[in-house]
Design brief:
By secondary structure, this protein is of the alpha+beta class. It has one domain. The protein contains six helices and two strands; from the N terminus they run H-H-H-H-E-H-E-H. The longest helix is centred in the middle third of the chain and has 16 residues. It comes from Metarhizium anisopliae BRIP 53293.
Length: 118
């Protein structure tokens, strides 16, 4: 079976390229450097995507219409979006789910007045 770019999935080239980047095959969990590279690449993409800004998230959806809602932000990095939403909408509580290594210490970034909701 062919993988991306027409390379056979069982070929050494495919395994070398994807075994350290794709979660689920066990090798990503053992390679912290690959995790850091992946997280850095994702952050670089977010930093350089025109029009993307954390502040814009609260403006692109009518969050207040949700009422007293609980939102789970899966893959939410260090909670920047959750913090932004909590600042602007007092009716929602947010839970950020992220890899332990990525989120370690992020609770220190949450403003004291928001800690009950983020």
């Amino acid at each position: 079976m062919l993988g991306l770019n027409g390379i056979a999935r069982d070929s050494p080239a495919h395994k070398l390229r994807w075994s350290r980047l794709v979660p689920g095959d066990g090798s990503a969990a053992a390679d912290d450097c690959a995790k850091i590279r992946f997280a850095s690449a994702m952050q670089a993409a977010v930093d350089h995507v025109p029009g993307f800004a954390v502040a814009a998230v609260s403006k692109v959806y009518v969050w207040a219409s949700l009422g007293n809602a609980h939102i789970v932000n899966i893959g939410g990095s260090r909670g920047q979006v959750a913090i932004e939403l909590a600042k602007n909408f007092g009716n929602i509580k947010l839970l950020v789910q992220e890899a332990a290594m990525a989120i370690k210490g992020a609770d220190k970034d949450v403003p004291e007045q928001l800690k009950e909701r983020v």
